[in-house]
Amino acid sequence: MRVLAMTALVCALVPGLSAPAEAQSLKKLRRCLEFKDMTMPRLICYDAILRPRAKPKPGPAEVVNDCRFLKDDDERLICFNRFVENPARPVAPDKPAEPVAPKATPAAPKPVEPTER
Protein backbone atom coordinates (compact mmCIF):
# COMPACT_ATOMS: atom_id res chain seq x y z
CA MET A 1 0.00 0.00 0.00
CA ARG A 2 2.90 2.31 0.80
CA VAL A 3 4.40 1.78 -2.66
CA LEU A 4 1.08 2.66 -4.27
CA ALA A 5 0.90 5.91 -2.33
CA MET A 6 4.48 6.81 -3.28
CA THR A 7 3.76 6.11 -6.95
CA ALA A 8 0.73 8.39 -6.87
CA LEU A 9 2.82 11.12 -5.23
CA VAL A 10 5.56 10.82 -7.86
CA CYS A 11 3.00 11.01 -10.69
CA ALA A 12 1.53 14.14 -9.15
CA LEU A 13 4.89 15.86 -8.74
CA VAL A 14 6.62 14.93 -12.00
CA PRO A 15 5.73 17.34 -14.81
CA GLY A 16 4.30 15.71 -17.88
CA LEU A 17 2.57 12.87 -16.08
CA SER A 18 -0.67 14.67 -15.38
CA ALA A 19 -3.28 16.14 -17.70
CA PRO A 20 -3.18 19.70 -16.26
CA ALA A 21 0.60 19.84 -16.70
CA GLU A 22 0.19 18.67 -20.27
CA ALA A 23 -2.36 21.40 -20.96
CA GLN A 24 -0.08 24.05 -19.46
CA SER A 25 2.81 22.86 -21.63
CA LEU A 26 0.69 23.05 -24.77
CA LYS A 27 -0.45 26.54 -23.87
CA LYS A 28 3.16 27.68 -23.45
CA LEU A 29 4.31 25.85 -26.59
CA ARG A 30 1.67 27.60 -28.71
CA ARG A 31 3.55 30.85 -28.08
CA CYS A 32 6.39 29.42 -30.16
CA LEU A 33 4.16 29.40 -33.25
CA GLU A 34 5.04 33.07 -33.77
CA PHE A 35 8.41 31.92 -35.11
CA LYS A 36 8.70 30.67 -38.67
CA ASP A 37 8.06 26.94 -39.06
CA MET A 38 11.03 24.55 -39.19
CA THR A 39 13.53 27.19 -38.01
CA MET A 40 16.05 27.16 -35.21
CA PRO A 41 14.31 29.97 -33.25
CA ARG A 42 11.12 27.89 -32.99
CA LEU A 43 13.09 24.85 -31.82
CA ILE A 44 14.95 26.96 -29.25
CA CYS A 45 11.58 28.24 -28.01
CA TYR A 46 10.22 24.67 -27.70
CA ASP A 47 13.41 23.47 -25.99
CA ALA A 48 13.26 26.33 -23.47
CA ILE A 49 9.84 25.11 -22.35
CA LEU A 50 10.50 21.35 -22.50
CA ARG A 51 14.23 20.77 -22.16
CA PRO A 52 15.62 17.98 -24.37
CA ARG A 53 16.62 14.80 -22.57
CA ALA A 54 18.43 11.71 -23.74
CA LYS A 55 16.58 8.42 -23.92
CA PRO A 56 18.17 5.25 -25.35
CA LYS A 57 15.36 4.30 -27.73
CA PRO A 58 12.63 6.92 -27.90
CA GLY A 59 9.44 5.52 -29.38
CA PRO A 60 6.74 7.48 -31.14
CA ALA A 61 5.57 10.43 -29.08
CA GLU A 62 2.17 9.84 -27.48
CA VAL A 63 2.18 13.11 -25.52
CA VAL A 64 3.93 16.40 -26.18
CA ASN A 65 6.48 15.79 -23.42
CA ASP A 66 7.78 12.75 -25.32
CA CYS A 67 9.07 15.04 -28.09
CA ARG A 68 12.00 16.15 -25.95
CA PHE A 69 13.55 12.67 -26.15
CA LEU A 70 14.13 12.91 -29.91
CA LYS A 71 17.75 13.74 -30.75
CA ASP A 72 17.40 15.13 -34.27
CA ASP A 73 16.39 18.81 -34.42
CA ASP A 74 14.04 18.35 -37.38
CA GLU A 75 12.32 15.36 -35.78
CA ARG A 76 11.82 17.32 -32.56
CA LEU A 77 10.36 20.29 -34.48
CA ILE A 78 7.96 18.08 -36.40
CA CYS A 79 6.93 16.30 -33.21
CA PHE A 80 6.21 19.54 -31.33
CA ASN A 81 4.36 20.98 -34.33
CA ARG A 82 2.14 17.90 -34.48
CA PHE A 83 0.84 18.59 -30.99
CA VAL A 84 0.80 22.39 -31.06
CA GLU A 85 -0.62 23.26 -34.46
CA ASN A 86 -4.30 22.64 -35.00
CA PRO A 87 -4.66 21.08 -38.44
CA ALA A 88 -7.90 21.85 -40.21
CA ARG A 89 -9.78 18.57 -40.33
CA PRO A 90 -13.18 18.24 -41.87
CA VAL A 91 -15.78 17.31 -39.34
CA ALA A 92 -17.62 14.21 -40.44
CA PRO A 93 -20.51 12.64 -38.58
CA ASP A 94 -19.78 9.37 -36.82
CA LYS A 95 -22.52 7.50 -38.68
CA PRO A 96 -24.14 8.60 -41.90
CA ALA A 97 -27.80 9.39 -41.50
CA GLU A 98 -29.94 6.52 -42.66
CA PRO A 99 -33.28 7.23 -44.26
CA VAL A 100 -36.15 6.36 -41.98
CA ALA A 101 -38.60 3.97 -43.56
CA PRO A 102 -42.27 4.55 -42.77
CA LYS A 103 -43.57 2.17 -40.15
CA ALA A 104 -45.83 -0.55 -41.45
CA THR A 105 -49.40 -0.21 -40.24
CA PRO A 106 -51.28 -3.36 -39.44
CA ALA A 107 -53.80 -4.35 -42.05
CA ALA A 108 -57.45 -3.73 -41.27
CA PRO A 109 -59.20 -6.84 -40.02
CA LYS A 110 -61.31 -8.67 -42.54
CA PRO A 111 -65.05 -8.47 -41.97
CA VAL A 112 -66.56 -11.61 -40.55
CA GLU A 113 -69.15 -13.20 -42.81
CA PRO A 114 -72.28 -14.52 -41.21
CA THR A 115 -72.64 -18.27 -41.25
CA GLU A 116 -75.88 -20.16 -41.82
CA ARG A 117 -77.38 -22.29 -39.09
List the helices and strands and how they pair.
Elements: H1 2-13, H2 19-30, H3 40-49, H4 73-84
Helix pairs in contact: 3-4
Rg is 30 Å
| Strand elements, count | 0
* SS summary, helix count: 4
Q: What percentage of the residues does DSSP assign to strands (E)?
A: under 5%
In whole angstroms, how far apart are the ends?
90 Å
Unreliable segments of 5+ consecutive residues:
1-17, 88-94
* Mean pLDDT metric: 74
Descriptive overview:
By secondary structure, the protein is mainly alpha-helical. It has a domain at 35-85. The chain has helices spanning 2-13, 19-30, 40-49, 73-84. Helix 3 (40-49) crosses helix 4 (73-84). The radius of gyration is 30 Å and the shape is rod-shaped. Mean pLDDT is 74; it is low at 1-17 and 88-94.
What attributes does this structure have?
about 120 residues; mainly alpha
Short description:
By secondary structure, the protein is mostly helical. It contains four helices and no strands. It is rod-shaped and about 105 Å long.
